[in-house]
Amino acid sequence: MDLLKLVAFDEEDLAVLSAHLQDAAVRVEDVAYLPKEGRFALCARRFDWESDLGEAPRRRLTGIHFERVQNVRCKNMDPRRKEEVLNLLAVTFEPGAAPAGCVTLIFSEDRAIRLDVECLEAQMKDMGPVWEVESRPEHAAPDPLVLDAVSREGRG
Fold it and tell me: CA torsion sign, 63 to 69 to 75 to 78?
């Protein structure tokens, strides 16, 4: 498979990027905020969701960066624990005073990184290495009662 390269300039673009990054493993030492450049970057070992079910599951080394970042906040994370590995679940955007807003990288165990951005500008690029892993990430099926409650809240 060819190396994947994606850009995100709006919420729809970011949703595609987020889908490809679901279940990526991110080491704390591979996360950096460069305030003078207004850039937030990280390297991730993303699960290769594009591979066929008949193929061995694999991961790819991927770089992600966000531009025009004004501030970064972490929730339930200690940046000094560099060896720690985080499980990325999703990347979301909450609009503010257009075109500004907040990008949130949501990790398992109630952890998150929130980026205050002037505007949404992100890029994801596979960097080459690919390796087989033992298993595919599994997710429990959503509880129908929870889905119904969420659906009702959205209508209210």
Answer: positive
Query: Residues 6 or more apart from 106 whose CB is under 8 A from it?
Result: 88, 89, 90, 91, 92, 112
What's the CA gap between 101 and 15, in Å, rounded? Answer: 15
Strand partners, 92: 104
What is the reported pTM? 0.83
The residue written with tokens 């929130």 in the block is: 114
Strands (E) across 39-142 are located at 39-47, 58-66, 69-75, 85-95, 101-107, 111-117, 122-132
* Structure-token pair, residue 13: 């673009």
What are the pLDDT digits (tens) for 120-140? 999 999 998 887 777 767 765
Using only C-alpha atoms, the chain has a radius of gyration, in whole angstroms, of 16
